[in-house]
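I trust your eye. Have a critical look at both lines of this record:
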Amino acid sequence: MVEGLSTIQIGAALIGGYLLGSIPFGIIVMRAAGAGDPRAIGSGNIGATNVLRSGRRDLAAVTLLGDGGKGAAAVLVAWLATRGAGEAAQAALTCLAGGAAFFGHLFPVWLGFKGGKGVATFFGTLLAAAWPVGLVAGATWIAMALLFRISSLAALTAAVIAPVAALLLHRPAAAVLAAVMAVLIYLRHLPNIRRLLKGEEPRIGGSTKVEGGQA
């Protein structure tokens, strides 16, 4: 157990973070707008990139903010709960809560543990838990997206850079969090990786006829 944290705090961070992360914003916003279900279009994923395939940029933007915001919200609540617990305890609990939210997005109990690919939640969690690390990861995504116009490649590169940046910035708890999220992102992007190796991965703004695509 981390010094300064109780079992109740840790349990609340894990359970609360998971439940926050499991909120399927893509499904909620599309159904609320009468636009159908993201699982029935494109890659079948619930994230913002697949919601965009519905032709509704506004719904995709709301989904992006929701998926990123739930990771940030989990971190913020944990931060507020540990303001007097010391820097190490606060860093540990915020990272636990953020990691749980990320896991909840990937494996939401409400959807039979079939969720999104976690990219938006990854960035939202990192920006809240260690904003310099989040900024480096975000800048990496933007640079790769501009250079290669492939969303999955940008996300995979950012996922690798994030834990390295956290170590260089002396954020050990954030480095562990980023590394765990990076491994899960790679596992969730195996179909994308196979297409990248074959040179078949769709570019941003290109064909939407994909299987197991981004988000």
User: Anything to note?
Assistant: The CA atoms of residues 25 and 63 lie 5 Å apart. The radius of gyration is 17 Å. The mean pLDDT is 93. Residues 57-81 form the longest helix (25 residues).
